Amino acid sequence: MAVKMEHPGDIDDTLQAEEARDELIKVTLAFWDYVKNSSDVTDKAEHYKLKMIPILDAKRESRRLVGDVMVNQNDVEAGRLFEDRIAYAGWDLDIHHPKGIYSGEEGSLDYKDDVPLNSVPYRSTYSRNIENLFMAGRCMSYSHVALGTVRVQATLATVGQAAGTAAALCAEREMNPREFGKKHIGLLQQELVKNDQTIQGIKNEDPNDLARKAKVTASSYEKVGEEVISLERPIGLTMPRWVMVSVKGLKKIDTVRLYLESDSGTDQSAAVQLTGLEEIAQHEAGTPIKKVVLNVPAGLKGWVQLPVNATLPKTAKFVKIALPQMSQVNWPIMSNRGGRGGRGYKDTVSTGEFHAVKIEPRADLKNYKPENVINGWTRLAQNPASMWRSDPTQSLPQWIELDFGKPTPVNAVQLTFVTDPNGHRAKLPFEESCLKDYEISAWVNGKWVSLVKETYNFQRFRVHPFKTLKAQKIRLSVSATHGSPSASLFEIRAYHNLKCQ
C-alpha cells in the first residue's frame, strides 16, 4: 500500500528543498506511528511493515512562468480550443488542500472530476518577456487551478514534444517563439501531427506526403459498415419494449426504421416515443425528443420507416426508441449489431443486444476500408472512419498497398498502428491489435523489392527510411499480430525528402 504525504505548504519547496524533505519524512513517520498505535486499523496493521520512505520530495508545483497566454480554470472547464493548440489535456482539475495532511475533516484532496478534453495553446509554452525561452513542464503558463489538468506526465510529455519541435523550427528559421507562432503555427501543428501528436481537429495535410494522392487497395477489409442486418429470433410485443442505440456525435436524427412481423389480420397504429439519454443507466429518465406514429399493415414482415427530423439534446449519447404493446406483432432481435446500448422491458436491460432498428444518419458507422489510412486521422475518437482493418474471417497474411500511378522517388515509409482503437488504456504486455510481424515492399521495374522486414514490433508509431528508389507501389504485408485475427492500420505515409544514409 502506497500513501501520499504532503506538508502544509509553509516551506518553500524550491529554496528550502532540504527542509521540505525533512518535514515530509517527519509527516511520514508520524503517520506510520498513528497507523500502528492509535488508529482504527491498529489491530489489522500489527504485522504491517514500513517498506520505503522516498528520500526525494516530489514537487507538484514550484515556479511557474508567464507566457503570452495564461490558461485559467474557465478555459479548461469550457474545453476551449485555442487556435494555436499544440497538444491536449484531460486530467481532472486535481489540486490538493493547501494544508496537506493537516486539512482535517475537509480532506486532503480538492478536485473537479468532470473536466472535458481541453487544448494546450502554443503561447503558454514560451515566456512573454524572455524572447528565446520555452517552458514545457509544470512551470508553463497556467494558473494554479488550471495546472491540475495539464501537470500529469503523459500530457507534459506531449507538451515537451511540441516545445522541443518548436524550438528546433525557430532555430532553423532564426525566429523567436512569438514571431514563429504568429507566422508558422500551421507548420508546427503539421510537424507535430506527422510525428504522432494528437491535436483536436487537426489532421494530416502534409503536402510532402506522397500517400495522400495515392490509390489505396488491400487484400481484404472488414465490412462492418455495410449494414446487412440478419435476424436472430422474434420477440413479441406482448408488453412495452424498447431499444437504446448510440447517437454520440450526431446533432439530429432524420429517420428511424424498425423491422416488424405482424400476424394480425388488421392494420394497427401506435405512438413510438423517442427519448435522449446521457447514460445507459438512465434508461428510465432522459429528455423526450419526439413521438412518431407507427403504422403496421396487416401481415407485414419488413421494415417500417418513421420520419423523425428531430434535433437531439446536446447531452444525448443514446436514443431510446420505445414501442407500446401491440397484439400479434413481433420485434425481432438482430444478431450482428453490437456496440454500446441494448434493449429492455420493464426493469430488465440486455446490453449489447438489439431489436431490429436502423437510424439515419448512423452514429456508430464502422468503416474499415483501405482508403481510411490516407484520410488524415489517426484516432477513432476524432473520426470513426480512421483505420483499415482486414476481414477477420480471412487468415493472415494480409496486405495494404499504395499505388502512385507511376514510378515515384521514395525513401521512407511511416506507419501508425492500432494499439488502443477505443481510447482505453492499452492491455499488457501488448495490445492485441498491434501489428507484430510485417514487411514493406516496393514495386520497382515490374517486380517486388523487399525494403523492410520487422519482427516482434510492439510500438504504435514507426518510421522506416531506406535508400531512395523509384517505386510505383508500396505494400505493407502483415503476417502476425499480437492476437487479433485482423491486420489493422491507422495511417501510412510515404516520403522522398527524408535524409537517409
What is shown here, in short?
Helix content is 14%, strand content 33%. It is of the alpha+beta class and 501 residues long. It has 4 domains: 1-59, no CATH class; 73-194, no CATH class; 210-223 and 366-495, Galactose-binding domain-like (Jelly Rolls, Sandwich), CATH 2.60.120.260; 231-360, Jelly Rolls.
Topology:
Blueprint: H1 17-37, H2 73-77, E1 85-89, E2 93-96, E3 109-112, E4 118-121, H3 147-150, H4 153-173, H5 177-194, E5 215-218, E6 231-233, E7 241-246, E8 252-262, E9 268-277, E10 287-296, E11 301-311, E12 318-323, E13 329-330, E14 333-334, E15 341-345, E16 348-351, E17 354-355, E18 357-360, E19 388-389, E20 398-416, E21 435-444, E22 447-454, E23 461-481, E24 488-489, E25 491-495
Antiparallel strand pairs: 1-4, 2-3, 5-20, 6-14, 7-12, 7-15, 8-11, 8-13, 8-18, 9-10, 9-12, 14-17, 15-16, 19-24, 20-23, 20-25, 21-22, 21-23
Helix pairs in contact: 4-5
What does this structure look like?
It is a single chain. The protein is an alpha+beta fold and 501 residues long. The chain folds into 4 domains: 1-59, no CATH class; 73-194, no CATH class; 210-223 and 366-495, Galactose-binding domain-like (Jelly Rolls, Sandwich), CATH 2.60.120; 231-360, Jelly Rolls (Sandwich). It is 14% helix and 33% strand. It has helices spanning 17-37, 73-77, 147-150, 153-173, 177-194, and strands spanning 85-89, 93-96, 109-112, 118-121, 215-218, 231-233, 241-246, 252-262, 268-277, 287-296, 301-311, 318-323, 329-330, 333-334, 341-345, 348-351, 354-355, 357-360, 388-389, 398-416, 435-444, 447-454, 461-481, 488-489, 491-495. The strands form 7 sheets. Strands 5, 20, 21, 22, 23 and 25 form a 6-stranded antiparallel β-sheet that branches. Strands 10-9-12-7-15-16 form a 6-stranded antiparallel β-sheet, with no helix packed on it. Strand 15 and strand 16 form a beta hairpin. Helix 4 (153-173) crosses helix 5. It is globular and about 90 Å long. The two termini are 51 Å apart. The mean pLDDT is 89.
